[in-house]
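Pasting as-is:
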Amino acid sequence: MRCTAYRVGSALMMGRVISVLFAVLTALSNGTASVLQRRAALKVPDSEAMHLSLIGHLLRQKVWLAGIGLVIVAAVCQAVALATGPIAVVQPIFVIELPATLLVAGFVMRVGVPRPVWFGVAAVTVGLALGMASAAPVGGSDDVQGAAWIPALVATGIFEAVLIGTALGTSGNARAALLGLAAACGYALTAALMKDAMSRLDSDGVVGLLTAWQLYATAAAGVGALFLLQNALQAGSLVAVQPMLTLGDALISITYGVTLFGEELRTGWWLLPQLIGVALIATGCVVLARSPLATASPEPSPRVR
């Protein structure tokens, strides 16, 4: 009995290490892709906003295509991370994408990294560590049970419609923030669908994966989120987009993890350090987004996944 329990515990621990490792690799790939994506987005005229021609314009730029290549690498790493760990663990790790983006941007633009950037990196890192340690996500299933997707998709659709509708009535940074939050919701949904799809691979093999509607819904949600993010980047500054994108993805992903996959988080007094961790992450994101590396042209973008 003890030997079996030890093996199970070791397997779970190894799975958690693998999921964290590939989540970090996803963030680094996205951080590098973000710099390339933003360089391309800055060349798009304002008249292309919220039109499919925006994507056509970007497709003619080699730097954007290089960024898409890294997006594909990140997607593979994310799939491995979600297949081996809870969504409430994997998705919040992506908050390190902004620090990665700015550090890569500093290298690309050949400028030194200012001290505030390091303070921001420290705040995001400490906040993430504190939040994850205090929340300690555990349990949950690899797939979504029954018809739980129906209310989740309806609620997500209503939320997205409200955000996009409100964004279309604004401009500048207000539109960028709203579209950034809409993109974050799209990416969180993509991750939840991807995790559910990957569970079919474990249970039914390749045929089960290829016949699962979640696989194709993952692609559709990912393309939609990418479209929203490109428009957010075109509409306003990083300081408007990034906090909404970073925290929105993490918090909405945790919500999906709890409601769809049955993952559990610590509650009670543990909520206090969790809130402190969120506050540190938000503060770090604002500091980083206001840094010269974020406001310089070409402006590095938040994640593109």
